[in-house]
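Before the break, one more example. Copy the sequence into your notebook; we will annotate it together after we see the structure.
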Amino acid sequence: MTKKSVLKKSVLKKLVLLSVVSNCLYTGIALAAEETSDSYTLDPIVVTAQRTETRDLETPAATTVLTKEDIKNTGAKTVFDAISFTTGITNFSYGAGGLDYGSMDSRVNIRGLERGALILINGAPINLNGKNSLSGILPENVERIEIVKGASSTLYGAEALGGVINIITLTPEKEYVKAKVGLGNLGYKQYLVSAGNKDFNIAVGKEFFGAIDRTSPNRKDLDGKRKYEYYNERGKGDLFNIALNAKLSERLDLSYMRSESNSTYGQIVVPGTLTKAKATEASESKRYHYDDKKNNFSLTYDYDNTKAVAFYTDRDLYGESKNLATNKWSENASNYLARKYGIDVQHEWSLRDNKDSFIGGLLVSRDTYKGTAAATSNVRAGRNNMSLYGSYSYEINPKLTTILGARFQKISDPVNDQNVFMPQWQMLYKLDEQSSIYSNVGKAFTMPNLSDTFKYVNGGYQAISGPNLKPEEGWNYEVGYKHVTEKDSWKVALFYMDFKNFFDWAPDPETGKNTVRINGGKFQNVGIELDYKRLLTDKVTLSLGTTYSNPKKRDIGVSTWNQAYPKLQFNAGVNYTDNKLDAGIALNWLTKRLQNRDGGTNPDLINLNAYVSYAFGENDSVQINLNNILDRHNVITNGDWEYWDNPFNYTVSYAHTF
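Here is what the structure looks like once it is written out:
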């Protein structure tokens, strides 16, 4: 078969699959054109923003709530990809779907701030060593996701510079047992079994993905050190997940997740580019293999305005590499075991005949990090945190409310102990029953990664001292407008972010290499976000969003500012939902992106997804997911090193409920 005929066949296949989705969506809109309903709320309850239940319209912060239906409507196969369709969220990943390649972690970024999002599962933090990967979280186990944009350290502590993402797990409405099988191109397979009732839910799944010949363009040898050009590839891999939720009593809930991923990627010499003496293309080409295990556990007590969350999370990463000439594996120096555990207790008091409220809390936690490779056997670091926080909501009059909050956090650190104070001031004014305006001013911070407290010297690692090393910290200033009716909602937010003490690398006096962590950089961003959602009928929903901002950073010792993240984002979606038929199409478009290492600019990321789902009776359903319909080399990193998303891919899945 010729290359031209293969291309025609591929295009034809995509057109046929897309036409199925489009026809289902068009038919649904036509049938429902005259119907309306207010069964779908555009003013959801939000818990994360204030650490207590408030309506979105009465919350003085930029918030987004993604229901399990919203996640499904993006057409994405992973939670990581689904979140990227949210205004103000710009993900970064080396592997498709948020797949981590060892210490090359995926991360979720809010408002252009690198590593600026704190991830929670049922209110328990899962960030480890400064990383917030979502790899390994089953979409089928998610009830909703609450996203709060803006500095949130007053209520949540370190790492919430850009905001907080709280993933709330599924609680079934009735007893069920379900099996699901999914098959697709690119070697994708999924097997999932789940069961539960209103007090218990468990899901066990395994995914397989095939090899991809190229996941990057050719990388030029710009400084002449490598003596060759190379590109990246992905090998076969798999991902195992288990998720368990249990209501132990009316007051006590348990949540547990475990993921085990097996991934391989390669750096392959471009044929004909090697100029290094006494070397071959095989000896300079390498493959890296990773076994990555993660555990997240939480126990939540909730009774009579008192809530306590005990949590534990860990990551055990083992990696090895080989060159293609010897085919001998050797362990990586980046192997590690990181842990976080602690307890967060809060109580809410109602004051002045329920006009006011005060939330006070205490957080005690410990982070640990240790190297597990021979080269890092002496790498041991730990950090203790103790913080008191409070937030007072005062009703000035029935239309105007002000909220004052503060956190004091004492940190026992291996490099430099810290005492941190984080204030926040918010105002909310109700224009009428459907509209409100708000302001939100808050400070946020984050500490250095524990792994940054060591430097590489002569094949091993040594602890470093940094008495002047300070937390990254800064302010977020925001004003916004919200308008919500039974049929549509408008949200507008204007924000300004100003952060200092950004971590950078400095030369070690002994070796001259950049291995010592210092403060130095600055980050600023000013922008606007707009979100619009309309219920065209009781079955058809339209969603539109855009953000334009100017994220920029300034490195230490430099007077010029450089672009830090993409400036312009669009997202859109149309969804049809009926008793048996669901269909949707969703778009995420990033443009005005960064320069790459070759002197060009990261191309626009244009991700177009679609899905259609049909239920045969009460117990059987089939779903088709189409991802990257335009078959673009979407660059899912930002800046120098370009890594590509999967090409066009589809999945056909069948589910049966017993």
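The helical segments are 3-31, 68-73, 79-83, 153-156, 281-284. The chain has one domain: 3-319+347-657. Try to locate both features in your own notes.
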